[in-house]
Each structure stands twice: as C-alpha cells, then as structure tokens.
Amino acid sequence: MHLISRTRLSRIGTLAVTGALLLSLWSAGPVQASQVPPPAAAPQSADDYQQFIKDQFGYSLPPSPTKGDFILAVAGVLGLQSSGIANPFQDISVTSSVYKPALALYESGILTSDILNQDQPLTQGTALYIAVKAAGLKELAYTYPADKAAKALAKIQPGEAPARGLTPQAAQELAAAVDTGLLPESLHNDFELNKPASASFGILVLGKVLETKGLYKHYLGSVSDPDITRIVRDAWRYQSLVQQPELQDTADQALQAGLITGYNIKDDRFTPNFEKQRTLTYGHSEIDHALQLIGLLRSEGIDAKVQLEPKTSAFIYLKEWGEPVQTDDYKVVQIKNGNFIAYAKEYDLSLEFVTAGQKARFQDIVLQYAKKDREDQTGLIAHSWWQPLYYSRTEVADYEVITNNKITKGHHYVQSFSLNDQSEAIAAGLKKISPHSEVESYKFWVDGPFYNYLLGESK
C-alpha cells in the first residue's frame, strides 16, 4: 500500500475505515511523565554553523583561511554567479579558482576594490567588511553618523579612539557589524581589526550572514522556551491549505488511478534545514496534539528546536460516507465515479534535538504517551493515533525503511510515502502522467507503527 495521508475522521464526521486507508485516531488523557526541567538550549557555536555549512553547501574553511578562501565560501553559500563582465581585478587571472566567485561578489557590490589580495591571510576586519555587504546591511551601515559609529565601536575597542585609523565608511561598516550581531558578542573582547581570522571566526561570521539572509535554520523556537506553545499555536492559526494546481493535477490523477492512496503538498520555504542526525519529523492534524507533545517532551527533560511545517493532505473520500462538510481547512472536489478527493489542513512538526541520544529517546516517549492501543485507553496526550507518523532522514535503531516519492515545482512539492518495492512503479506512473516532471525517490526511516500502517494494519 502506498502513503495515504492521515485522514481526519473528526472533520469528515465518520469513523469508517476502508481497508487500510483510514484510521480511527483519537484518544485523550492526562500526561503522566516525570517532571524533569528541560536543559537550556545552547547558543549557536562555530561547530553548529560549520556542520550546517558543510551539510547544506559543502564548504569549510582551513585553519588559517586566506581572503580567497572566504570569498569562495561567501559566494558558495549565497549561490552567487557572475554574468561574465570584464575582469575588474588587477592582481588575479581569469584562470584562478577564486576568479569567478570574486567576480560574482564584485558584481553584487560585496567586493568593491580592484585589488583582491586573495592569498593574504583573512583578517577579522576584512571578514566583517565583506559580511556586512554580503548580509545586505550596507545601507543600514551608511546611515551611521560618526558619533553613533564611535559608540558602537567602543564596545570592541574600550579605552581607545574607536575609529582610529579607519575611513568613515569602514567605521560605519564595522559599527553595523557590531550592532546587528554579525560580530557576535562572544568575539568582542578578542577582536582586532588586522588580526588574522581563524576558521572559527570566519565560520561564525558566515553563519551570522546566513541567518540575516534567511538561509540558516528556520524554526519557531525551542521546546524549552516559555512561550513556545503560544508561538506554535499562532503559526498554526495563520496557516491555510497549501495548494499548487499543477502538482495537484498530477497527484490527483495518480490518486484516481490507484497509483497512490494519498499524498501531501508542502512548501519548502518552511523547511527547517535542521541537522539530519539529530532531527525527526512528526506528522499530525490537530494542533492540540502538537502543543501537548511539546509539553510532554519538556516534562521528560527533552529539548529541541521546533518548526511547524504546513501541509495539505489529499485522499479519496468515498460517497457512501455521506455528504462531506467543507470548511476553510477542509475542501473536497467530486470526481467522475461519485467519490471525492478531500484536501485537509495538517502539519509536520520538525524537531532538532539537542543530542542524538534525545532523538533516540523520542520513540519510547511516543509509544508510551502518544500511541493509541485500545479504544478506551487513558493516559495519552490529546488526539493520539493508532499508528503515529514520525520519521528520520538518517538511520535510527528499530525504525523501518520506506521510500518517499516526490515531485517539485517552484517552492512547492508533492510527496507520497510507499513501501520500497512499490516506489519504482509509482515513479514510472507519475512520469507517465506528467512527462516533464522529475520524480525524486529516496529512502528514509519511519516508526514501526506507521510501517505497519503501510502494510495495511489500521490498528
């Protein structure tokens, strides 16, 4: 059986189950867990940024980076490409590996000098001058009058004439780097303008550029944040059905042909970009379940970054179930055989745990407090499912391997989960329906109950 997106029986007003297609999902009860305060979330470190930059972009800095090394990294993580203007640099050949990245930065206004000095050690000051412009903050910097710039620079040059030896523009850029956090406070005491920058310094600054540009991790907060439940609920309130007509047309044809039994539509702008080794994604439809799950994790001493990813789940609604009730969050379209395709608002809760060990503990917590095993079961968080869904892009002990079949258009994508031996047929069928679409199929690890669900077990 292929992925059916988890149908919301409470929305369609029935507890009918057709084969393995639909599940009776709900149970509620008090949380019974040890009241252990969660650990405080650690601030982002050079190691955090380095792991992210390596995983997402394939870049790292040597222990003693040159200016050329930093230029390569900045152009790479920002995805900048040159249009091929004439070489503006006096000291670099077009055959150099740094030439095209440097040209891309020059065209973007990030590099402004015709002297590159690519082989010179990267200084802390040079890293920040590049970073301010790479982060898109130069206009802010150039609003600084001299006295305001001096006030900011006094934070990193106490007891000195703050702008001594700096041009007015350099003072402005450096001041903006201080005030906006491109130069983290942890580096203030050790900052020296002409001091060679270590790899750690360069990576921290580069990580701050990515954060400012919206290219780092995307998340609402952490489990340990005192207001995280309010933030998550507000995020859910502002979400609506995710729609992409062209992708939906392809997937709906696959659904009607029986190629798949359900699918999700998602928007990759909500993708958290979390570190895969420490991340799980948990799917559900009821926001109270997510809020109670966060509280459950806190009570068990678990901390994690939290991202709520909106999704729409689509599935066949049978005509014998009665006339469907439509809302802003639940729509149906009738098809030729009299049945309907239903589109329901749901979410994926992505969690990047503080440690891999906490990720490994997650399953025991869910199986004890968030998996329904009998009709009259108590002691579960609200709306617990018979077969919960959570998965990892990296191997986890006691999880099963299945396949995601995915097609993308712009920021949106449609995905349908399947058993591994069905993936090839699904990909071929999707390609036949939409020859211009690229079908991406990859394996990942899912909890045992959901694997059993794919095998046809509704409970």
Q: Can you lay out the helices and strands and say which pair or pack?
A:
Elements: H1 9-12, H2 46-57, H3 67-78, H4 99-107, H5 124-134, H6 138-141, H7 146-153, H8 168-180, H9 199-212, E1 221-222, H10 228-238, H11 245-256, E2 262-267, E3 279-284, H12 287-299, E4 304-317, E5 330-334, E6 340-353, H13 356-369, E7 389-392, E8 400-409, E9 412-418, H14 423-433, E10 439-446, H15 448-454
Antiparallel strand pairs: 1-4, 2-4, 2-9, 3-6, 3-7, 4-6, 5-6, 7-10, 8-9, 8-10
What's the gist of this structure?
The protein has 15 helices and 10 strands. The chain is α+β, with helices and mostly antiparallel strands. The chain has an 8-stranded antiparallel beta barrel with strand order 2-4-6-3-7-10-8-9, surrounded by 6 helices.
Give a structural overview.
- With about 450 residues, the chain is an alpha+beta fold.
- The protein has two domains: about 10-40 and about 225-455, no CATH class; about 45-210, no CATH class.
- The protein contains 15 helices and ten strands.
- The chain has an eight-stranded antiparallel β-barrel with strand order 2-4-6-3-7-10-8-9, surrounded by six helices.
- A hairpin with a 5-residue loop joins strand 5 (about 330-335) and strand 6.
- Mean pLDDT is about 90; it is low at about 1-40.
- Keywords: Signal.
- This is SLH domain-containing protein.
